[in-house]
Design a protein that fits this description.
The complex is a heterodimer of chains A (536) and B (652). By secondary structure, chain A is mostly helical. Chain A has 23 helices and two strands. With 652 residues, chain B is mainly alpha-helical. In chain B, strands 1-2 form a two-stranded antiparallel ribbon. The longest helix of chain B has 52 residues. Chain B starts with 5 loop residues before the first helix and ends with a helix. Classes of the chains: A mainly alpha (536), B mainly alpha (652).
Chain lengths: 536, 652
């Protein structure tokens, strides 16, 4: 496979192709007849997915740096270039994003019944923006993609959303836009300050990273601006209140894209930019304490608030606040396990929360309500739907053997040494997570089938199975054999950990030196004999 | 054969997939389900026997670790999906597949008419897979896969008849209570990883001596939290009685014979740590002793036949905790094995009774409770095989020699007594155990008397329809009956000419713990007095229970007056469910709903901060537009004020 890919020069054109295909597809959707819009979109999505699959083999797991790099001048006077590349951190965000595309189209197939051309073209435009965010290595380019995303999402929620959609779309837009404007100021200031000192004005990621020491004095303010933009996107408690509204009112495809990709842009931003640029600020004890406290608060808070939501979609939305808290904790603990775990949570959350939103959307199509109290006993009439939902719910709450556990476990294991108390509190989420999802599952699928309207609910059809089955299969596969994922992300995680190591305080709980532990393997020795200082 | 141990897991897993597919696609294909469901279990049992024989022949030096594939490998963390075959896991392997096979066969008859037949077997097969992952897992995370997986299956099977809210509630309660325990197991894992840098079970045992006493204590206490969840001990026992909402064979397999003993297994597996942490061991034994007594008292006043058995199970599990807490790990495992025999028999026997009652009521269109013992009575005439076998199990659980329970219970009580020489508190634990033995006798005899003796209270119409179960159900009962009688032989003490085979078999696994914290069991006169006391107490209990129950006519549930005084407190299970509800559930829901969601989220963050920000910016904008009103006079004044201010700043 690798040889074939090399022979067609795959690594030279793939990123450009991935960025261009959705845009071309958008044009095709616009010019095609309305009734064909979804079919064109589906074909484009499948092409995009097919193209992206080569990354799996073409990507070199041993390489921690950027791969598939291209750099072309764009606005040379401003130091702006079209500079793109991929590493283990962005690889799976890209793959997740392309893999979701056909599912999104399938999932919207019958749900979107007006202005179809508009819908599918925006969906495709959104995809270019998302992919761009994860491959851009020029901060100007990054910012463009970052903002490019907002527009299609704004319209997707505002036009095809439900209920309070105008409120939700404006809230989403203003919330994230005000955050990202600050980031723009910080980016420009950073380029200018570094330009003044070095004489080279450039938005290139590696240039800025190499000279981060020159902005040490301004670092606290710059970090704050970056951090606010990303924190809103994650969302970190208490910047999360746009999320339940946006998720709740968005059409299924919008909710899925939000959950699978948009939320990851925040944590990706921290991992790629905010912390590597300003590690001394980001990982200083004070900032660490605040971020970790907010992360853990989000974990527990998201779970508890999720538990009492009367609206099924908001149950899932608040659960995202909880899941993303794990990612933040893992990033700040900065051990290889915790960072790998954070990346795994990002992937796993994409799969299972994406699937949950699809399934909620399918329920909504059948009964036109998202209120939990309108359901009950559905497992009797729709066993496939109930099975898929239950498996996904268990994946989401971190049942070992399914995808959610891998990331959560690694984050907690890796963070415990550095933040024992925070990790202890975060671990209680395993209890609350079970409470909110199982309670919701019970009230929707179990209990008596008392509402006669529910008796007519149809089970999943083939098109819907085509959406759900690949997701469930991916969950099982990732849960049982995450090795291919871990292998491809490890080098990038290692690199991040190396980068920030000088700024990270030593762990609170120190591991026992292995040599001593190894030699102490003689059974029958008194517990205190192996230790010089035997605590009473 | 040892290399093929993964087959024992793979076979039931394949059964789960096949039966699951049938359940989703063609739920009516019963014949295939009846073949696959029990078939894969018998296959797994054959594998287990093969593994045992090879291990006993010494062909392989235990422990043998079979690595399947790398799972969680990150930097220095190395976790493979590996299975560990040693003496301890083999014992559990045999019990789970052996008793499991019998219960699967029984289920063919018991669940035969249920519309969810295929779904039932797919869950049951999946349970066995996970249970085997639990006992065979070579590292903590793998063990944890099984640990949570059995919880999942328990959840699915308790709520099997999910259209009743009670059942769905019970399943959820079980899962959440178990998750509270799992929190403890996770923290213990994190502590061990930080302290020892490995999660491999063999490595952990080898490196354990490097632990500080404080860490060892913390680890054991967190592990213990997990064990109290899975094994239904105080404070997390509350889910087990409700778990009786599931089909009765499930109660026998999961909630009596296998899953609930996982805590005892885990403590034995980590015996080195517990031996290093006296506090951890003491708390384990204390929880066990108190739970044994506490649950036994509740069992005295329950009328649902399965609930009586459930509390008896909690109580017996308490015994096992007392044993392993006292450092008598082999004795704990011994009781685990014998209990699996006689408690599975009791549950399946009660299943046979319920089956008969249910059919009788079904035939007469009666809506009476088929599980309420006050509706039974005199069933010995209709269910003679079940009657005899259940008495055997009752005598075994009461510790009457020479039945299996006598030997295992006695080993635990002796160990607790022996520890009294170290710390007097152990005598209290011993006394709790003895008292629990008395109450076990009373409540079990009460169960037998109410069910099988005296006059029948089922009702004239229904009585004619009461019949013994078919052979596919009585067959497994007979085998379990045989095992309940002779099961003690696996660890016959030296005092009666045995050679403690089980203890000797387990010695290689338990040796490190024994060396750290040796146990000196009493011999000679003390031993005989202890044995005599235990037997006497059990026998007296049986006699008292039997006679008191039949002393007065038993009113049916409709006629029965409400309980009074302490009996009422017992009948309502000390109101623990209500107390937990008031202390934990309600405040948490209130906090989440009123405080966090409606106040913090909606009012403060959204209301004040977000909408406040929007309001403020609008207000500032309006202020600005007010100034820009087109009146030259206002502009002139502002211009002058500005000029003055600029001059002022320049000049000063």
């Amino acid at each position: 496979m690798s040889a074939f890919l090399a022979s067609i020069g795959y690594e030279r054109w793939i990123i450009h192709a991935l960025l261009a295909v959705p845009l071309l597809g958008m044009l095709m959707v616009i010019v095609s007849p309305a009734a064909w819009a979804r079919r064109v979109a589906l074909v484009v999505s499948l092409v995009e997915l097919g193209l992206s699959l080569g990354l799996w083999w073409a990507f070199d797991p041993a390489e921690g740096g950027m791969q598939f790099v291209t750099r072309l001048p764009w606005l040379p006077a401003w130091g702006v270039s079209y500079y793109v590349g991929l590493d283990g951190l962005s690889l799976f965000m890209v793959l997740l994003s392309t893999a979701m595309m056909p599912l999104l189209v399938w999932g919207s197939w019958n749900q979107i019944d007006f202005k179809q051309r508009g819908f599918y073209s925006l969906l495709l435009a959104l995809k270019t923006g998302m992919l761009g965010v994860f491959v851009a290595l020029d901060l100007f380019l990054f910012y463009c993609f970052w903002e490019l995303l907002l527009i299609p999402m704004y319209f997707l929620i505002g036009i095809w959303g439900s209920g309070n959609r105008f409120y939700a779309s404006e809230k989403f837009f203003i919330y994230t836009f005000s955050g990202s404007l600050l980031m723009l100021v910080a980016i420009v200031a950073m380029v200018w300050l570094i330009g003044q000192a070095t004489g080279i004005y450039s938005f290139a990621y590696d240039h800025l990273l190499a000279h981060k020491a020159l902005v040490l004095r301004q670092a606290p303010w710059l970090f704050l601006a970056f951090a606010l933009a990303f924190a809103v996107k994650v969302p970190v408690f208490p910047f999360h209140t746009w999320l339940p509204d946006a998720h709740g009112e968005a059409p299924t495809a919008g909710s899925v894209d939000l959950a699978v990709i948009l939320l990851k842009m925040g944590t990706y931003g921290f991992l790629r930019f905010a912390i590597p640029f300003f590690p001394a600020v980001a990982l200083s004890p004070g900032v660490s304490a605040i971020v970790v406290a907010l992360a853990v608060a989000g974990i527990v808070y998201g779970a508890l608030v999720s538990m009492v939501q009367p609206d099924l979609k908001r149950v899932v939305a608040y659960s995202s606040v909880s899941h993303l808290g794990f990612v933040m904790l893992g990033i700040w603990a900065a051990t290889v396990q915790s960072v790998q775990g954070a990346i795994m949570v990002m992937i796993a959350h994409g799969l299972s929360t994406g699937a949950l939103f699809f399934l909620v959307g399918m329920l909504y199509e059948r009964r036109h309500t998202r209120m939990i109290k309108d359901y009950g006993g559905l497992a009797r009439v729709a066993p496939l739907l109930a099975t898929a939902f239950s498996i996904t719910a268990f994946a989401s709450i971190g049942l070992p053997g399914l995808n959610g556990f891998v990331g959560e476990f690694l984050v907690l294991l890796g963070s415990f040494g550095r933040f024992p108390l925070a990790t202890l509190i975060a671990t209680t989420a395993v209890i609350f997570a079970a409470a909110y999802l199982l309670w919701a599952v019970q009230r929707v699928f179990f209990n008596p089938l008392s509402n006669p309207e529910n008796e007519r609910v149809q089970d999943l059809n083939l098109r819907e199975l085509a959406v759900v089955v690949p997701l469930v299969a991916a969950m099982v596969w990732m849960g049982l054999y995450p090795r291919p994922l871990l292998r491809r992300t490890e080098a990038a995680a290692q690199r991040y950990v190396e980068l920030v190591r000088p700024y990270v305080p030593p762990p609170v709980i120190r591991p026992a030196p292995l040599a001593r532990a190894g030699e102490a393997g003689v059974a029958g020795r008194s517990p205190h004999a192996a230790h010089g200082e035997a605590p009473r | 054969m040892i290399r093929l141990v993964w087959l024992a897991i793979a076979l039931p897993l394949a059964g789960f997939v096949v039966n699951g597919m049938i359940a989703l696609v063609r739920p009516r294909a019963r014949a295939l389900v009846s073949l696959v469901g029990p078939g894969v279990l018998l296959g797994a049992f054959a594998v287990a026997v093969g593994v045992f024989l090879e291990l006993r022949a010494g062909a392989a030096a235990a422990p043998v670790v079979v690595e399947l594939w790398p799972w969680l490998d990150v930097a220095e963390l190395r976790v493979s999906l590996g299975l560990q075959v040693d003496q301890l896991s083999t014992v559990l392997l045999l019990v789970v597949t052996g008793v499991g096979s019998l219960i699967h066969l029984f289920s063919v008859g018991y669940m035969g008419n249920d519309p969810g037949y295929a779904r039932y077997f797919s869950y049951l097969n999946l349970f066995v897979s996970f249970m085997l992952v639990l006992v065979l897992g070579a590292s903590y995370p793998v063990l944890f896969v099984g640990w949570e997986g059995v919880g999942l299956c328990s959840y699915l099977l308790i709520g099997f008849w999910f259209t009743d809210k009670v059942n769905a509630d019970a399943g959820k309660k079980a899962f959440i209570a178990n998750r509270v325990g799992d929190f403890g197991v996770l923290i213990a894992m994190f502590l061990l990883w930080q302290a020892l840098g490995t999660l491999d079970l063999r490595e952990l045992v080898a490196r354990a001596p490097a632990l500080t006493a404080g860490t060892a204590t913390a680890v054991t206490l967190f592990l213990l939290l997990g064990c109290t969840g899975k094994s239904a001990q105080i404070p997390l026992y509350i889910w087990l009685p409700d778990a009786m909402q599931g089909p009765t064979p499930v109660s026998a397999l999961i909630h009596a014979a296998t899953m609930v003993t996982a805590g005892v297994y885990l403590v034995s597996r980590m015996s080195v740590l517990f031996a290093m942490a006296p506090t951890g061991s003491l708390v384990t034994a204390g929880i066990g002793a108190v739970t044994a007594l506490f649950a036994a008292t509740i069992g005295l006043r329950q009328y649902d036949i399965k609930r009586v058995l459930a509390y008896s199970t909690v109580s017996q599990l308490g015994y096992m905790f007392l044993g392993v807490g006292a450092g008598a790990y082999a004795a704990g495992i011994f009781h685990l094995v014998t209990h699996a025999f006689f408690k599975a028999l009791l549950f399946l026997g009660s299943g046979s009774v319920i089956h008969a009652m249910h059919r009788a009521y079904h035939a007469t269109h009666s809506h009476e409770d088929a599980q309420d013992m006050r509706n039974m009575g005199g069933l010995r005439r209709c269910l003679p095989v079940t009657f005899v076998l259940m008495w055997i199990a009752t005598l075994a659980i009461a510790g009457i020699p020479p039945l299996s329970g006598f030997f295992s219970k006695d080993a635990i009580l002796s160990a607790a007594f022996a520890r009294g020489a170290e710390q007097p508190i152990w005598y209290v634990f011993f006394a709790c155990g003895l008292a629990a033995a008395l109450l076990t006798g009373v409540s079990m005899a009460r169960l037998m008397a109410m069910t099988f003796h005296g006059e029948n209270r089922t009702g004239d119409a229904a009585r004619k329809h009461l019949h013994e179960a078919p052979w596919i159900m009585t067959g497994p009962l007979v085998i379990l009956g045989g095992l309940s009688v002779v099961g003690g032989a696996v660890n016959m003490p030296e005092a009666v000419g045995g050679r403690e085979a089980l203890a000797a078999w387990l010695a290689p696994v338990l040796e490190p713990a024994r060396a750290l914290w040796p146990l000196h069991l009493p011999h000679g006169t003390t031993e005989y007095i202890l044995v005599g006391a235990a037997v006497a107490v059990g026998a007296v209990g049986l006699l008292v229970g039997y006679r008191r129950t039949l002393a007065r006519p038993i009113p049916t549930p409709r006629e029965a007056p409400p309980e009074r005084g302490f009996a009422r407190v017992l009948n309502r299970k000390y109101y623990v469910d209500e107390i937990y509800d008031a202390l934990f559930v309600r405040p948490l829901v209130w906090l989440s709903d009123r405080v966090l969601w409606r106040t913090v989220d909606k009012a403060v963050v959204d209301g004040v901060l977000v909408h406040g920000g929007v309001f403020a910016s609008r207000w500032i904008g309006r202020l600005g537009s007010r100034i820009q009103n087109g009146q030259l006079g206002v502009y002139a004044v502002l211009f002058v004020l500005g000029a003055v201010w600029v001059l002022h700043t320049i000049l000063s």
